[in-house]
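In response to reviewer comment 3 from the previous cycle, which asked for concrete evidence that the modeling workflow produces usable outputs, we include below a single protein chain processed end to end. The sequence was submitted unchanged, and the resulting structure tokens are shown without manual editing.
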Amino acid sequence: MNEEKHTINGIPEPEYWRLVILMGRSNADSFIYKVNHNYKAVVYKIYLLEIGNWLKSLIGKE
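The workflow returned the following structure tokens.
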């Protein structure tokens, strides 16, 4: 049985909300439009933001 994939601005919901958590809603929406709703670019941006947060947490603990 095929499940409907829910999208927001052409991006699957889990990735969209993860980006919103990391960037804020207006910045996330602006970024999605800037990359022309490119799913790979959104996932890559989430990946970079997560790594940046991880590095900040490591540096902050020293």
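The radius of gyration is 14 Å. We consider this sufficient to address the reviewer's concern, and the full set will be provided in the supplementary archive.
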